[in-house]
Amino acid sequence: MKKTFFIFAMQFFVLFVFSQTENSSIAIIPEPVSLIKNTGNFILPSAINIAAGNNQGVIAIAEQLSKQLTVPTGYKVSVNDKTQKTSSAISFKLNSSEDKTIGNEGYKLEVTPQHIIISANKPAGIFYGMQTLLQLFPKEIESKAAVKNIKWIVPCVAVTDYPRFGWRGLMFDVARHFFTKQQVKDFIDEMVKYKYNLLHWHLTDDEGWRIEIKSLPKLTSVGAWNVKRVGYFGTFKTPDADEPRDYGGFYTQDDIKEVIEYAKSKYVNILPEIDVPGHSLAAIAAYPELSCSGGVGNHGVGSGEEIKDWNTHTALVDDNLCPANENVYVFLDKVLTEVAQLFPFEYIHMGGDETFKTFWERSDAVKALMQKEGLKNMEEVQSYFSKRVEKIVESKGKKFMGWDEILEGGLAPNAAVMSWQGIKGGIKAAQMKHEVVMSPTTFVYLDYMQSDSMVEPYIYATLRLNTTYSFEPVPDGVDEKYIKGGQGNLWTEQVYNTRHMQYMLWPRSLAIAECVWSPKSKKNWDSFTKKVESAFKRMDVAQVKYSRAMFDPIFTPTKDASVSDSLKIELSTEVNGLDIYYTFDNSHPDNFYPKYTSPLTVPKQAVMLKVITYRDGKPIGRQIDMPVSVLRKRAGLKN
Ligand code: ACM
Q1: Residue ranges of the domains in the chain?
Q2: Which CATH superfamily includes the segment(s) 167-517?
Q3: 194: pLDDT strictly greater than 90
Q4: Whether residue 8 has pLDDT greater than 50
Q5: Average pLDDT over residues 279-291
Q6: What is the reported pLDDT for 17?
Q7: Topology of the domain covering 552-634
Q8: Quick check: is 22 catalytic?
């Protein structure tokens, strides 16, 4: 009897908890620390006031919400309006005494049928509470125009939320391809929806110098311009001498200030990157005397031609600043004086990656420097350079950060390390008690392909959403206190425009957002992919492009061990619950064709395997037409 009662009570308990927490229409990314779904909805009245108190930061956030609500709803949404007859059912409140649980960026959000209250210790928390609130509204809230016949309801919830990491970044390379200040602002608008708080602005590289430095005008009059090419960046022909160098652009210092102010209003810090001593061809095109070879036969700003041999790590063109030239440090002092005055953020990123030493090795000046300073190898030469640059950065009141190559040859005393070549650099730096930001290629490189190269714009590596989602910023055995957080990196060699930029960002940046904000215990791949589908619908309304690669079929060809020279092909999908249909007869598969259930072997003389995914009887992924010859090659078999 007791047992029966216990089972009954357990069932009731499970049911109760389930109804409190489960609601398929709620899809917040990143997943909050705690979200309890209560019964009922808040219905937005057609005239509403946001009570925002008297903190200027909070009032500004309320004004952002007012704008965001007014456009799609067409309703009157005022802020701190005591004169109008409006319902003051939305309130933003700063806590009078600190709520220790939620810290500086956390918030509590309470939605009841009567009111919406966001409370926080700091305005930043109110801002993130607002992002969660917006994701609770119908997707049409993302519309840039008025939408009729929508019931603007918000489900009743109680949310307590705060970030796992203080550094939640995205890197945007505006050097390989230039993006205007408006495009950068749009980038910021999208990233903050998912509670990112840091834009790493990659401002200089071989193909462009994008920031006005008033004391060095040629950096932008020369360094910001190259020859327009489309196709496969890195393989283009070196431009002819008479080809117009009119492609590119740069930000004036006023532009930079405007973007920084804009970012600040969205609680985003901007980390500027000046990438030296390698990746400096644009600077060298402007001031050839800064390279060890003196810019012999001045190559000009890169236009996507081959300037490095990536297999042998050989520089074909000298794109390094010369560490043995005192004028280089004078140059960097000038650059950093202006950069430090412009950017309020505490760090300046000084690059340090992929400094192929070919021209340093050939330089008598570098040899003399090595002798004078007792430097044993080229890594120590780079370390000498980094340590001097760190001193310049610090003399401007800033902290020095670099890519993990700055570890080679000895890390500068106070340097923070951004670990990109996997996680080992981050581990090493943290063990040396240096600050670390994790941005490993293996998980967060947003320039990599998201699906099979048969259907993706080609780049040399693939990074699928499920791998990105498994990003863990704190490696095993590392003291978490040295890990500031993580970020995704969007390099733009193959990104020529905003639509493709968005395609590469989303949904992988949704995954990264959850990795750097949400508690580890809250991550769940299946529920994440469902939330991504909701996010896609919102992006459709917002007219933001994204990749649906997570629905594509995946081919895993291997040598069939049991039969010589034979191929075994496994098919799979990232998203669970999809059906896979295939053909070997060159016709297009649909759900009347064979359904994949176990590894395939290739019928004699078949040349093409065509595969498509379905869900609930409807096609969902792209059809991939895969030549058998390609699968054989991938499996290491001869054709
Ligand atoms: C890098 O990806 N070269 C930092």
Answers
A1: 2-161, 167-517, 552-634
A2: Glycosidases (3.20.20.80)
A3: yes
A4: no
A5: 97
A6: 41
A7: Immunoglobulin-like (2.60.40)
A8: no
Take atom 3 of ligand 1 and give the residue whose Cα is closest: 353
In this prediction the pTM is 0.95
Residue nearest to atom 2 of ligand 1 (CA): 420
Helix H, strand E, coil C: the string for 139-194 is HHHHCCCCCCCCCCEEEEEEEEECCCCCEEEEEEECCCCCCCHHHHHHHHHHHHCC
Same CATH topology for 167-517 and 552-634: the answer is no
* 205 annotated active-site: yes
Check: CB of residue 163 under 8 Å from CB of residue 517. Answer: yes
Q: What is the rounded (10 degree) CA torsion for 127, 133, 138, 141?
A: -20
Task: Give me ligand 1 centre to Cα 407, in Å.
Answer: 14
**pLDDT category of residue 84 using cuts at 50, 70 and 90:** low
What's the half-sphere exposure (Cβ side, CA atoms, 13 Å) at 367?
A: 6
Please choose from 203, 271, 354 the residue to mutate so as to test ligand 1's pocket, defined by most ligand atoms within 8 A of CB: 354
Which of 142, 205, 273, 405 is catalytic? The answer is 205
* Residue 565 known to be catalytic: no
On whether the CB atoms of residues 251 and 339 are closer than 8 A, the answer is: no
Separation of CA 491 and ligand 1 centre (Å): 8
**Mean pLDDT in residue range 595-605:** 97
Cα 437 to Cα 474: distance, rounded to the nearest angstrom? 10
2-161: CATH class: alpha beta
The pair of three-digit structure tokens given for residue 618, joined into one six-digit string? 């409807």
For 607, counting Cβ atoms within 10 Å of its Cβ (0-12 exposed, 13-18 middle, 19+ buried), the class is exposed
Tokens 């109804």 found at: 19
Q: 164: which residues sit within 8 A by CB, 6+ positions away?
A: 516, 517, 518, 519, 520
Predicted pLDDT of residue 298: 85
Q: Which atom of ligand 1 is nearest to the CA of 420?
A: 4
Q: 290-310 pLDDT, tens per residue?
A: 999 987 878 999 999 999 999
What confidence tens digit (pLDDT) does each residue in 474-520 have? 999 999 999 999 999 999 999 999 999 999 999 999 999 999 999 99
Residue 3 has pLDDT above 70, yes or no: no
Listed in sequence order, the residues at least 6 apart from 26 whose beta carbon sits closer than 8 Å to its beta carbon are: 35, 37, 136, 155, 157
